[in-house]
Amino acid sequence: MKKLLVLLVIFAFSVSALAVINIKISGWPGNPIEEGVIKSIVEKFNETHSDIQVEWTPIPGDFRQMIITQFSAGTAPDIFYVDTFWFEEMARQNMLLPLDLYIKRDNFDIDDFYPSLVQAFSYKGRIYGIPKDFSTLALYYNKEIFDKYGVEYPTSEDTWFDFLDKALQLKRKGFETPLVLAPDFNRLIPFVIAANGELVKGDLNTGLTEPNSRFAIQFYLDLVNKYKVAQEPANLGAGWIGEAFGKEAVAMAMTGPWTLGYLRGQYPDVVDKTGIVEMPHLINHATMVYTVSWSINRNTRNRDAAWEVVKFLTKEGQKMFVKGAGVLASRKSIAATDTDPMKEAFYAGAAYAIPWRVPTPSGIFSKANDQINSKLKDLFYDKISLEQALNEIQTNYMSWVSE
Amino acid sequence: MKLSSKAREAIAGYIFAAPIIISILLFTIYPVFAGLYYSFTNYQPTEAQKFKMRFIPEEAMMFHTAVFPDEEDVSYEEIANFFNPVDFVLYDVGVNLNDKQIEAIRKYLDSERLIKDFLAGKLKEEMTVSKFMEKYMKAESNLFKRYIPDFLGLSNFKKMIKDQYFWISLKNAFVYSVIVVPVQTLLAILLAVAANMKIRGRGFFKAVFFIPSISSSAAISMIFWLIYSKPGVLNRLLGYFGMQPIDWLNNPNTALGAIMVLNIWTTAGYFMVTFLAGLQGIPGTIYEAAEIDGAKFWRRFWKITFPLLRPQILFVSIMGIIGCMQVFDQIYFLIKNMRNITISYYIYKNAFEYHNMGYASAIAMVLFLIILLITTLQRKFIKEEAYF
Fold first, then answer.
1. Are B171 and B277 contained in the same domain?
2. Domain extent at residue A303
3. A365 pLDDT higher than 60
4. What is the pLDDT of residues B196-210, one digit of tens each?
5. Which of B93, B120, B144 is the last residue of a domain?
6. CATH number for the domain including A315?
7. Tens digits of per-residue pLDDT, B80-119?
8. Any stretches that span the bilayer, and where are they (chain B) (predicted)?
9. pLDDT for residue B145
10. DSSP assignment of B36-100, as one string?
11. Share above pLDDT 90 across residues of chain A, in percent, rounded to a whole number
């Protein structure tokens, strides 16, 4: 009798276990606030869905590489973050599930998402991920420092020359380093586009040697070497731009909404002194948009269940994320309800932002990115001339982005 | 079956050794041969499972044709007109193919039966790609059973010769080894001699010298990041001597040197232990005789200690070269400029970021041969026997 009971219990257990589908979702661990929000989103889903249970398993370290390795072994999670920078690489390797059929079948409101963000995750006419949020770059400034030295605040209508002028004023009046700048290619891009230059030409060869692009690069470097109003974070005793701004080593920084969250956590008194306006423009307005999607593993065993989870994550989940973690909503409907005044400049930038995804013949830009960043570092330290750097880029670019 | 006691002992020995034998075979020997194989191909790890991927053929057909057969009535001819079997397999089923496989699909995929089955609603069952290809290929379906990378012959190696960063990273690794190994060895000997002397607290000194070598390289890298940064401790100290602060890790001139100092500090203690053991083997009588003859400390050191430690020096320098040529951890954590990377970091970049596992394996093979050559030459020229 006892044995029968035990068998029955085990049977009931396994049947119920079989009936519940377990979906593993993964991303990189954010700051503690983001982590907390994700956990509550997962809880909410699990409460409201008895047949699907979601488990959040963040992967620290080199996320992209871990996912690729796990995929090669067949053990990748069902749903994971995909950053637009390496999205195309994953799409080409057939790691992501195309979602168009599901969107059509369920009448999913894909039009509620900003088109540029959906585009960021499209390849060969198919959509491979739903953007979960986005970030753009804007100009942070420290009101107290500007007041102290009697310089006018930056505004969203400033041109490059207004921007340079204000920085020079600060310097002349005694503030050592008004601006922090990173020798990072994606931070240079808004300048190239604002000067009406291009990153790549029609044949996908580099556009950085064209006159307009050259002008923009020269301006960026002059801020460091000629006008001496800018330094890279390491020279200011900071690990990154946000830290340099938080430590008040600089009066201005061009960075994204993640810095706001960071300041609120680490340097709350600086937040009160911070103003955020759109990036200075020249011929065009330009800024970067960084976005990450929820994508489904092409090899997942439970496609329909995974799709249900993605729908939740990008609707109810997004509402909770925007409110709790201070990110920018990728849905126009939710963006309309986000009235935090500090985020205005970021939302405004979405209209003219350039996605951090450079088209290449091989689908991978990271090799060229490493090379260009290496040149930028050399240029920041005056080790080579701009002429030399551009020549080397021109000669080798195609080999960096091919095969 | 009665086994002799000798056989029984042998078996027992093997069973005890089995765990380590198996793990060395699996995690060291097998990868070496696999790497050798991959270096002649364009192996992509993400494609290893591609034919085992499960999918629903009906969904793939719906993608290709934009037709929902349950809801609409479409004729066979309409679909057959624009159906492209190669594109179908490449983008809608979702498998990357080489030229041979593409040719096979063009010739032998039974598109007619596939479309008819699709319209009849017979494709709803989930199946693996290899099973699907078996069903619908009239011939040569064996090409789609397992992923076999393309054989490239020597082209990875030819590419290496033309690759600027291969030579830069190899040169960096060489320079690094040539400087670090002698300094490290010498420092280790000095530390061993110091630790061997009968001074107070020598147990403490031994521990202090040794601890860096067993500490996590990641933790040490973080600490040195702080020390070497522009407003860091090192620049403060040098500031007292009137030196301008230098960004040791970002400046391409000083970055590699900074890492060398880090590494020497870390591993000298480890080799000190080897030399300590070696020193115990030198009979004290030789020193006594030398002292009686009037030899001073440094004379005794260079003429007695150093030559008699020859076997240990050989061991330490070989281990040192093997380790230094492969230096990775510190470069990964601290070096941001592509000019200063070493060859194992370049291998890592190629394998995991630039999607060139085959090319990375080729570089790894070349590195293996270079280290093998160096250590063979070294053993030949520095005889192992001690002087007695």
1. yes
2. 21-135+290-355
3. yes
4. 887 888 888 888 888
5. B144
6. 3.40.190.10
7. 888 888 888 888 888 888 888 888 888 888 888 888 888 8
8. 12-33, 173-195, 207-228, 255-279, 313-335, 355-374
9. 86
10. HHHTTB---GGGTTGGG-EE-HHHHHHHHH---TTT----HHHHHHH--HHHIIIIII-----HH
11. 57
Provide the pLDDT for residue B57. Answer: 87
What pLDDT was estimated at residue A18? 60
Residue A78 falls inside a structural domain:
yes
pLDDT in tens, A79-136: 999 999 999 989 988 899 999 888 988 899 999 998 888 988 998 888 999 999 999 9
Task: Tell me the β-bridge partners of A82.
Answer: A293
Which helix (H) or strand (E) covers residue A23, if one does?
A: strand A21-26
B372 in the same domain as B226 = yes
Residue of B nearest to A239 (CA): B229
B206 inside 8 A of chain A by CB? no
Q: Are strands A130-136 and A122-123 parallel, antiparallel or unpaired?
A: unpaired
Judgement on whether residues A99 and A196 belong to the same structural domain of the protein: no
DSSP letter assigned to residue A18: H
Q: Which residues of A touch B96 (CB under 8 A)?
A: 92-94
* B54 Cβ under 8 Å from any chain A Cβ: yes
Best of B43, B230, B234 to disrupt the A interface (most A CBs within 10 Å) is B230
Query: Domain limits at B262?
Result: 156-381
Q: Are residues A61 and A75 in the same domain?
A: yes
Please indicate whether, in this complex, the C-beta atoms of B53 and A298 are within 8 angstroms of each other.
yes
User: Residue A192 in 3-state DSSP?
Assistant: helix
Chain A's closest residue to B87, CA to CA, is A124
The 10s digit of each residue's pLDDT in A141-168 is 999 999 999 999 999 999 999 999 999 9
Residue contact B62–A377, C-beta within 8 A: no
> Where among B93, B114, B144 does a domain terminate?
B144
Last residue of a domain, one of A335, A355, A375: A355
Rg of chain B over Cα atoms, rounded to whole angstroms, equals 31
Q: Is pTM, for the whole model, over 0.80?
A: no
Chain A CA closest to residue B62:
A101
* CA distance to partner chain A, nearest, from residue B42 (Å): 11
pLDDT at A13: 61
**Cα(A253)–Cα(A230) distance, rounded to whole angstroms?**
10
Alpha helices in A20-119 (DSSP H): 32-48, 63-73, 84-92, 100-106, 115-119
Q: What percent of chain B has pLDDT over 70?
A: 98
B250 in reach of chain A (CB within 8 A): yes
Whether A81 and A162 map to the same domain: the answer is no
Q: Examine the domain organization and report whether B375 and B309 are in the same domain.
A: yes
Q: Which residues of A153-183 are buried (b: 16+ CB within 10 A; e: fewer)?
A: ebebebebeebbebbebbbeeebebbbbbbb
Structure tokens at A317: 């989940």
Q: Are residues B14 and B91 in the same domain?
A: no
Please indicate whether, in this complex, the C-beta atoms of A72 and B49 are within 8 angstroms of each other.
Answer: yes
Q: CA nearest B253 in A: which residue? A: A383
pLDDT at residue number B360: 93
Q: Closest approach of chain A CAs to the CA of B167, in angstroms?
A: 15
Which tokens go with B229? 């940064």
Same domain, B86 and B217: no
Question: How many structural domains compose chain A?
Answer: 2
Q: Closest by alpha carbon to A239, among A154, A182, A167?
A: A182
- Does A308 fall in a domain? yes
Average pLDDT, chain A: 89
**Domain check: are B173 and B85 in the same one?**
no
Is A2 part of any domain? no
Statement: residue A15 has pLDDT above 80: no
Say yes or no: B198 and B326 in one domain. yes
Domain check: are A123 and A159 in the same one?
Answer: no
Quick one: average pLDDT of A200-227? Answer: 92
Q: Assess if residue B386 is contained within a domain.
A: no
Asked if residue B388 has pLDDT above 60, the reply is: no
Residue that the structure tokens 């959509």 belong to? A127
CATH of the domain at B272: 1.10.3720.10
pLDDT for the residue B386? 47
How far is B130 from B136, CA to CA, in rounded Å? 10
ipTM: 0.71
